[in-house]
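Researcher: Next entry in the queue.
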Amino acid sequence: MDRGVIVSFDMACTLFWEHGCDPRYPYRPVRAVFTKILDYLAGLGYNVPRGVDAWRIYGELWRSIQDRGPWRELWHRYVLLKLLYRLGLEVDYRLLDEIYDLYISERARLFLLPPRHKKLLEYLNGLGYTLVLTTGTGAHDLPLKILELNNVSKYFKMVFSTQLIGIPKSDHRFYEEIIDTLGIEPDRMIHIGDSLEADVYSPRRAGIKTVYYGWRTMCRASDPSPCITDLWGLTDYLL
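Model: Structure for this entry, 239 residues:
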């Protein structure tokens, strides 16, 4: 194995799991996060509307902002602000930060690291590989909190979020920024993830080697190669 290779992991639905990863799952626990936010505001004396689906409205606001463009990476803090005003809750910037922190803490608790994946991190770290985490999220604080809660922060040299870089993962310039920042040639990095567009096609356009984590499709003949259904299969491509 070449210890000079930098191993890049996608976060959600690749290294970490939450119920919302599986489209067949009938309930996304993230909806409960917004319920806690509204309960917190009600406890502060705000006239919180009852019976509203804040999670649904949040999603509609996110898509509306994206549709108006320009194409950019949105921040959860900003969309939360728009949500609160849409619900008639005119908070100030201090309370907005409190709500944002609550959102990050509660959202991060939903991401779990399978024991086998933690063993893989320990194994690669023990061999001397440099590990980085890449994630498409509008809150750089979220992956940091997820790593902290799962006690694996020590295994990663850097976390590259779309908020930190300011470019969506489906844009190959996201990965070009990473290799430029690290000062490496593209072929010194290998990236693994479960999204064809964001974790395979995009990094490949930047010259980065990829391994497709095909847990959704079980590695169909039409899926890009190499494709694995067990994350430990990554070790076969670190030669």
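Model: The mean pLDDT is 94.
Researcher: Noted, moving on.
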